[in-house]
Design a protein that fits this description.
Blueprint (H helix, E strand, L loop, with lengths): L1 H13 L2 H39 L3 E6 L9 H10 L1 E3 L4 H10 L3 E16 L2 E11 L3 H4 L4 E4 L4 H6 L3 E4 L1 H8 L8 E4 L2 E9 L21 E4 H8 L2 E6 L2 E6 L4 E6 L5 H14 L7 E4 L1 H44 L1 H9 L4 H28 L1 H15 L6 H5 L6 H27 L3 H6 L2
Parallel strand pairs: 2-11, 4-9, 6-8
Antiparallel strand pairs: 1-12, 1-13, 3-4, 3-7, 3-12, 5-8, 6-9, 7-8, 10-11
Helix pairs in contact: 1-12, 2-10, 2-12, 2-15, 10-12, 10-15, 12-15
């Protein structure tokens, strides 16, 4: 009986192909939008989580922050206005105190950021990011050397004028030439290239710890060389004025031996630094492990929100199906009366119209899955088209975003479409089954 009912339902739907297709269109778009939105949300969240993971779950990152002069202490404001030198951020003494006071620290990597013009022959990077750091930076930031070597302890001891280029900086300064052994002018000083890092993916954009710029453009020199060659005083030239800033260290990254002690280590580090700083707003402490846990919770909420928004289209599609099935029941009233007169029961009539509704929604759900699975190539195609029209049209995050289709979203979408068919098909089916056979036969 079910097989016969299914064949009859499919035959009835094929008698009105265009109407059946338009009825399924709401379900197709609903299922496709659910899969596509969840895929884009999953891709963006995975990228954010990957960035946080690359910061290191066992790391505590302390960064210098330039305080707002309006919120600074009056005494320090008066002193700095007279000297015109703004001092803020982390100091070398902070690094020594942290290493000597906190026993849970396994490694402490200081970083100082300098902005200078980098030039090799006729190629140049006008405002290059030059990071003065130690050999442990490579392991702490999960970077890899592509050619040559990274900074060594001997380079630190001697304060050697050697540099390691990120892949993007090497390509910008030397194009297709081999940069190893060649000289690079950083500001007014000349450094020898001893290594080139492997290209870093989009997930490493935050791994450098300073700002959110691409690590592929960074240039690394020994911390001792940066301190002696470039100094700590920075000249800030603005319209009509010249200001001076002194910032010894831009960042200190602490690696904790036991991951369970990361939060406690971060709290101790914050107290130690605050005890020796006149202001508490010239540094910030970031714990990637806490950010990772928070991002995992936000990911679940974000998926629920996106799924709910896309599910509204499925609801609209279900209402459309109910409307069409009610109209179908009305126009097939005489057919229902004839079937009842020939011995069909109310359950048979209910099954007939319910099967037709389920066939509509299931077919639309499967077509919607195909549409949703195509969202990745469609997204990349539209992104490429926008890039050809105007490279700056889209935000930088869009160029690194890749939709990730979760298998559970496909199963959920098909299940919801099937549920929509059953829920919105019951009422028209019951209305058809409750018709009086005699009145149905009289219907013109």
């Amino acid at each position: 009986m079910w097989w016969q009912t299914l064949k009859l339902g499919v035959k009835s739907l094929l008698l009105h192909k265009l109407r059946s297709l338009l009825t399924m269109l709401g379900v197709i778009l609903g299922v496709g939008s659910v899969i596509a939105m969840l895929a884009i949300g999953e891709g963006s969240k995975r990228e954010a989580l990957e960035r946080i993971r690359r910061l290191g779950a066992s790391n505590v990152i302390i960064r210098s922050v330039k305080p707002n002069q309006e919120n600074s202490d009056e005494d320090s404001s008066d002193e700095q206005s007279s000297s015109r030198v703004i001092e803020y951020g982390l100091r070398y003494k902070d690094l020594v105190r942290l290493k000597a006071t906190i026993p849970t620290i396994e490694r402490a990597v200081p970083i100082t950021l300098v902005r200078k013009r980098a030039q090799a022959m006729h190629r140049a990077i006008p405002n290059a990011r030059i990071l003065g750091t130690t050999p442990d930076f490579l392991d702490v930031k999960n970077l890899k050397v592509g050619r040559g070597r990274f900074l060594s302890d001997a380079d630190m001891t001697r304060g050697s004028n050697v540099t390691v280029l990120a892949a993007g900086a090497a390509n910008k300064l030397f194009n297709f030439e081999d940069p190893l052994g060649k000289s690079v002018r950083l500001g007014t000083m000349v450094f020898q290239v001893v290594g080139v890092l492997s290209p870093q993916g989009s997930g490493n954009a935050m791994a450098g710890g300073i700002g959110s710029q691409d690590l592929n453009r960074d240039i690394y020199v020994p911390l001792t060389a940066a301190r002696s060659r470039f100094g700590e005083l920075k000249i800030i030239v603005t319209a009509g004025s010249v200001n001076f800033e002194r910032n010894q260290l831009s960042e200190i990254t602490l690696t904790v031996a036991d991951q369970n002690l990361v939060s406690q280590t971060a709290a101790m580090a914050r107290k130690i630094i605050m005890a020796h700083h006149s202001r508490s707003n010239d540094f910030e402490v970031q714990v990637p492990l806490e950010l990772l846990q928070q991002a995992e919770e936000e990911k679940i909420i974000w998926n629920l929100v996106l799924g709910s928004i896309a599910g509204i289209s499925l609801l609209v599609g279900g209402i459309g199906i109910m409307n069409i099935m009610l109209a179908t029941v009305t126009e097939r009233t005489r057919e229902i009366g004839i079937r009842r007169a020939l011995g069909a029961t109310r359950s048979h009539i209910t099954q007939q119209f319910l099967v037709e509704t389920v066939v509509l929604t299931t077919t639309g759900g499967l077509l919607g899955v195909c549409f949703g699975l195509f969202c990745g190539p469609l997204f990349r195609g539209l992104r490429s088209l926008a890039t050809l029209i105007n490279p700056d049209m889209l935000p930088a995050e869009i160029y690194t975003l890749e939709p990730r289709i979760a298998p559970w979203s496909v199963a959920l979408s098909v299940g919801i479409s099937l549920g929509v068919g059953i829920i919105f098909g019951v009422y028209p089916a019951r209305r058809a089954a409750d018709m009086d056979p005699i009145e149905a036969l009289r219907h013109e």
